[in-house]
Write a structure and sequence with these properties.
The protein is of the alpha/beta class and 414 residues long. The protein has helices spanning 2-8, 11-17, 44-55, 70-84, 99-110, 125-138, 148-152, 178-191, 208-211, 245-258, 264-296, 315-323, 338-348, 378-384, 400-412, and strands spanning 91-96, 116-120, 141-145, 160-166, 199-203, 221-225, 239-244, 301-305, 330-335, 353-354, 364-366, 390-394. The structure holds pyridoxal-5'-phosphate.
Length: 414
């Protein structure tokens, strides 16, 4: 029945119907919330059997909610089927209690002291901070790069275990060629003397797998802060990891050990959000296009960055159109007049909320240099292209004319 759904339905329908059997829940049309901590066995022998299955790494057994629970299992299967059901052989997804936990679990599952991680700049400040912590605490070696051409010029040793990417970058919205990075990882794997694999991990938070599918471009693991577009309403914190079964298995085992699981009620809200993801993303993209068009003509705006306005025939344009099918609602720009004018602009906003985070139905404005990226030393921030007057706008799903009117009155008085 579930396999049949996978072959017959399109992703938007799979997102609503896959992975749940009403007959297992008294015929309830939608999955009930399973708040239970633990799950009973019918006999002593069954409980023993469940533990044998658990120890062998088999998923799906219901024993204890840190190890797995029905709402989580339904959504994990639904996510994997929706986005990668027709392209990967054994797609899996894994829910975590936050985006940072998704990232930390992935790093911990695959890295050992002395390993080298290559990462592109700039990264989300929290991720950068965690990598720096891993460097200090566990002797993980770090080396940054800007784009796939930089990688091609490197000749790393077997110490290289993982390449980590955000594309587009946060908050500078620069594209990195995922396919070219995957080709580099594959080449490096083929030259290794230790039979291990060089992994490519992509943080796809800004795009969602609706607009960009890194695993289809050759990445091994895709990580999300589901707090953002996947959650979509600014009412939860969560993370999700995608990958083929063999890459997810060690991360799943570590999640069970460490307890980075997510509670049933948050999972139910995330599942509701998946049902409207396609509609929301279309609206985010359309609204952001209108807002960017307005900003491009405003005299107080400089260095506007929006994926829908990349110069045609540029390398960035080529990469963007090769690996994604939309812009998301993210825009960055600088306010003419420096820090003072930037603060004035932010203080004048009326409808757009002044807050960190992104990807919600409500529009949000954030000031990266002094908030999300304030942990990065000022000189490095400058080098990464994050000046003090940079604004990151997460365009919501309100009427675009109201978003523009709010920005206009704030910019005019900045
Ligand atoms: C690109 C990106 N990755 C990861 C994270 C961390 O996610 P969370 O806040 O859900 O832990 C964030 C948070 O802003 C982010 O923007």
């Amino acid at each position: 029945m579930q396999e049949e759904i996978l072959h017959r339905l399109r992703p938007e329908s799979i997102a609503i119907h896959y992975g749940y059997l009403p007959q297992l829940s008294e015929g309830s049309a939608i999955p009930p919330v399973f708040d239970s901590t633990t799950y009973i066995a019918k006999s002593a022998q069954e409980l023993e059997r469940k533990f044998i299955h658990l120890r062998s790494g088999r998923k799906g057994e219901l024993v204890y909610s840190r190890l797995g629970q029905p709402n989580t299992q339904i959504l994990e299967e639904r996510y994997a089927a929706t986005f990668y059901g027709s392209t990967l052989s054994e797609p899996e997804s894994l829910l975590t209690c936050s985006g940072m936990e998704a990232l930390a679990l992935t790093f911990d599952a695959y890295l050992r002291p002395g390993d080298l991680v290559l990462y592109n700049e700039p990264l989300y400040g929290g991720t950068f901070g965690h990598l720096k912590w891993l460097e200090k605490r566990y002797g993980i070696c770090l080396q940054s790069f800007k784009n796939a051409d930089d990688l091609a010029e490197m000749n790393p040793s077997d110490a290289l275990k993982l390449i980590f990417l955000e594309s587009p970058t946060n908050p500078t919205l620069e594209e990195v060629d995922i396919e070219a990075c995957a080709a580099f990882a594959a080449r490096h794997t083929s030259m290794r003397s230790d039979n291990l694999q060089t992994l490519l991990v992509v943080d796809n938070t800004f795009m969602t797998p609706y607009l960009q599918q890194p695993l289809s471009c050759g990445a091994h693991i895709e990580v999300h802060s589901a707090t953002k577009y996947l959650g979509g309403h600014g009412d939860l914190v969560a993370g999700v990891i995608f990958g083929n079964k063999k890459y997810i298995a060690p991360i799943r085992a570590l999640r069970s050990q460490r307890g980075g699981t997510i509670d049933a009620r948050r999972v139910v809200r995330l599942a509701k959000s998946l049902e409207t993801l396609a509609m929301r993303m279309q609206r985010h993209c359309a609204n952001a296009t209108q807002v960017a068009l307005f900003l491009s003509k405003h005299p107080n705006v400089v260095n506007l960055r929006f994926l829908g306005m990349l110069p045609e025939h540029s390398e960035q344009f080529r990469i963007h159109h090769k690996q994604s099918c939309g812009t998301s609602g993210m825009i960055s720009f600088e306010v003419k007049g420096g820090l003072k004018a930037t603060r004035k602009f932010l203080n004048k906003l009326r409808m757009i909320m002044l807050a960190v985070s992104l990807g919600a139905t409500h529009s949000l404005a954030c000031h990266p240099a002094v908030t999300t990226h304030s942990g990065i030393p000022a000189a490095e921030r400058k080098r990464m292209g994050i000046p003090n007057n940079l604004i990151r706008l997460s365009v919501g799903t309100e009427h675009y004319a109201d978003i523009i009117a709010d920005i206009e009155q704030a910019l005019d008085s900045a």
